[in-house]
Design goal:
Structural class: alpha+beta
Shape: globular
Strand order of the largest sheet: 3-2-1-4-5
Strand content: 25-35%
């Protein structure tokens, strides 16, 4: 079975993009980060993978797991 690729929400020249890890093209492009996060969350839930959020500078700000995580985090942020 192929490894599922995480979803990344990253800055894009036209706003924000939700893209699959390792892909050269954006899966979807949105005017705001909130819109891109909504679409990325849908994609991550459907594929049961991680959603990784990047800031304007491209650095990772946050991540959420929507897969079957055998070692779930102990924090209660969501």
């Amino acid at each position: 079975m192929a490894k599922k690729r995480d979803i990344h929400v990253v800055p894009h020249q036209d706003g924000w993009a939700a893209t699959r890890e390792g892909s050269t093209r954006a899966s979807s492009i949105h005017p705001t980060q909130a819109d891109a996060l909504r679409r990325g969350r849908e994609m991550a839930r459907q594929d049961q993978v991680e959603l990784v959020t990047h800031g304007r500078d491209g650095r990772i700000r946050d991540s959420d797991s929507y897969g079957n995580d055998p070692y779930p985090p102990k924090d209660k942020k969501h």
